[in-house]
């Protein structure tokens, strides 16, 4: 079943209230053909469980890894993925688009 | 994000009220603006425009780069008429993330067998619709073809803020309907809100095709606004 943004943010709240550490990732900008629109969310808990998507599968793994750092450091960060980016060549967007993702801890 | 901010955001959505979360992605500050608070906000114009489009995105304000998370309530579709076209509409509406509710006082039509898993009201629309609260995130379609049922339903829809009002029936049927609604006291402007004959002009024949044309028209009204949808028609 596809999780809608509603369920994703409700789940983030429920996780936090249940005592888990949580980070919220949001697509804040896209260029070219990007698989998920601006405003799409991915929520991640401290164990690396996640719900939602920011790219339809291409870069979720990398976002989850960064999210664990964000939870650890309690500091938000901005991630960029795209073909112009060297790391994105490994975990990049095969569609050729570029996306910027804001990852913040839920406090 | 602070947990209480997320709680408020979730609560606003559950109550079918719009809100915008303003995030300073470089500085890290964050605040939530509820629909009712927009008029008094320094960014009122930008927020109002974003809300109308239902679109999140980056903006610049006072030299800061801000991300606006625009949250509008799930779009609802209220259909009067538990008919064949409505049945065909259910799976398509689900794919489009529309919450569908069916109203039809004829108990032979409004059965869970015909509409499994769909909120169903086998009652008169003038009793049910005010209770459902047709808001500006609701589309309304009258599909029974029976003035006894459609007319009071349309009257309730025209008195509401819903963003789309459509009614099944030929131009001739609609002309008679317009006369009845005018006699009931609705002015020209109100009656002009009704999209009739209902649906985009795609030469629809089968119930599924008619359902598609209606849903296409609803999406156009949602994404282009009422003026845009009229221009496209």
Task: Indicate the topology.
The complex is a heterodimer of chains A (107) and B (233).
Chain A: H1 5-17, E1 22-31, E2 41-45, E3 50-52, H2 60-73, E4 77-82, H3 86-91, E5 98-105
Antiparallel strand pairs in A: 1-2, 1-5, 2-3, 4-5
Chain B: H1 3-14, E1 19-24, E2 30-34, H2 44-53, E3 57-61, E4 64-71, E5 76-80, H3 84-95, E6 99-103, E7 120-121, H4 125-132, E8 138-142, H5 147-158, E9 164-167, H6 171-183, H7 188-191, E10 194-195, H8 207-232
Structure description:
Chain B: This is XdhC family protein. Chain B: Residues 77-218 form the XdhC Rossmann domain. Chain B: InterPro entries: MoCofactor_Util/Proc, XdhC_Rossmann_dom. Chain B: It comes from Chelatococcus albus. Chain B: Pfam families: XdhC_C. The complex is a heterodimer of chains A (107) and B (233). Chain A is of the alpha+beta class and 107 residues long. Chain A has one domain. Chain A contains three helices and five strands, in the order αβββαβαβ. Chain A has helices at 5-17, 60-73, 86-91; strands at residues 22-31, 41-45, 50-52, 77-82, 98-105. In chain A, strands 3-2-1-5-4 form a five-stranded antiparallel sheet. The longest helix of chain A is centred in the middle third of the chain and has 14 residues, at 60-73. The model of chain A has no long low-confidence stretch (mean pLDDT 84). By secondary structure, chain B is of the alpha/beta class. Chain B folds into two domains: 3-71, no CATH class; 76-232, NAD(P)-binding Rossmann-like Domain (Rossmann fold). Helices cover 42% and strands 20% of the residues of chain B. Chain B is built from eight helices and ten strands. Chain B has helices at residues 3-14, 44-53, 84-95, 125-132, 147-158, 171-183, 188-191, 207-232, and strands at 19-24, 30-34, 57-61, 64-71, 76-80, 99-103, 120-121, 138-142, 164-167, 194-195. In chain B, strand 5 (76-80), helix 3 (84-95) and strand 6 form a beta-alpha-beta unit. The longest helix of chain B has 26 residues, at 207-232. Chain B is elongated and about 60 Å long. The A-B interface holds A 4, 6, 9-10, 12-13, 16-17, 24, 26, 28-29, 37-39, 76, 78, 102, 104-107 and B 1-3, 6-7, 9-10, 13, 23, 25, 28, 55-58, 67, 69-70, 74, 97.
